[in-house]
Design a protein that fits this description.
Elements: H1 8-38, H2 46-49, H3 52-69, H4 79-95, E1 108-110, E2 113-114, H5 115-145, H6 151-178, H7 192-215, H8 221-226, H9 231-238, H10 251-284, H11 293-326, H12 329-346, H13 356-381, H14 388-395, H15 397-416, H16 422-438
Antiparallel strand pairs: 1-2
Helix pairs in contact: 1-5, 1-6, 1-7, 1-10, 1-11, 3-5, 3-15, 4-5, 4-7, 6-7, 6-11, 10-11, 10-13, 10-15, 10-16, 11-12, 11-13, 12-13, 12-16
Amino acid sequence: MKQPNLSFWKLFNISFGFFGVQIAYALQSANISRIFATLGADPHQLSFFWILPPLMGMIVQPIIGMLSDKTWCRFGRRIPYLFVGAIVAVAVMLMLPNAGSLGLTTQVVMWGLTGTMLFGLMSLMFLDTSINIAMQPFKMMVGDMVNEEQKGVAYSIQSFLCNAGSLVGYLFPYIFTFLGVQNVAPEGVIPNSVIYSFYIGAAILILCVIYTTFNVKEYSPEEMAKFGAGAEEKAADAVETITEQGKSASIPYTFFSIGLVQFFCWAAFMYMWTYTNGAVAAQCWGTTDVHSAGYQEAGNWVGVVFAVQAIGSVIWAALIPALTKLTNTKFAYIISLLLGAVGFISTMWVTNQYVLFISFLLIGCAWAGMLAFPFILFTNALQGNPKMGTYLGLFNCTICLPQIVAAVLGGMFLNALGGEQVMMLVLAGVLLAIGSCCVFTIKSK
């Protein structure tokens, strides 16, 4: 029995909660370095705080997938995990920006971290874990409830809501400052513009998730069985490993050759998320004092340039189909990464905050390429392979592991580059350029 077509609004309802989840993720991406710098973290320590997000993603998402495959209750199959993840995320979003206002010790407690930083670190761990718990069910619900004919539309809706949520989350601190909310605070305290951003983001997150919870009815086990997609079959597929024989002998090589490109690309963006705040403050506001008004203004502007990057990504993504027709997939991939490399390296000479728009529009091209071309090339290599789901699940490691490695080495690289955070963005550009050269090693169909 074929799964029925769903109306546009049913497709929209399945993914609407993703808008709120992505706001939370954008607030985390744009403000974590700013928050920990304000709490007193040394720039050489910043990259260590960024180990948690990819680590949590690599651990949590497969577990949630496995557990929800076996969950059937009156609330649904995926929705219970979505709701629990959202509740925990909301609680942490209310606590994390208040780490400097709780009267915790500012003395070093362990590992060179103060009490406030340890509280912030634990809050970040719970925040990223809960965001991953809430994020994964949306992807799985599309897989469960949408037939093959409509999956393209469903994922397009999800992509639109993802980008829209990112834009809102990135711009919140800037908007609140524009509206008159204080953007500076006493030493070691997070400004109200950031605190209110997290509060409003938490409110939108839970409202979006409640909307999805009440407007989406997941298929029952009996209905899934009729559609030929029983939980037992999916659970059996999930335990397959990459070591099993596939139909194409080129698959392992393709996996590792694309993974090599991914390594340099995701390491580059890890350094962007970690060091853009300090780089922009030093280059455009001429300050490295994390307690100054200029540093906090730079923190707001980071949200703006990240939003510009998201816009550049959307524009370039729309041009990718035409580019691949004019050339080929690998050449379009190389061009995307090289444009991003130019964007990163150009920040070394940019001292005007508005000129940064050009740099981050170019960086957006690389981001669009990273989200599209690896999956195009990899799924082409897997065409007709019965283990496609298994390989794609493992492919997530090529995203998470580079970020962890980059975070571990970040302080060492920063020290070697003289402590100038803008040089870490230049390093990101060099890494993208190396990644573009590694594209030549990929064998594509």
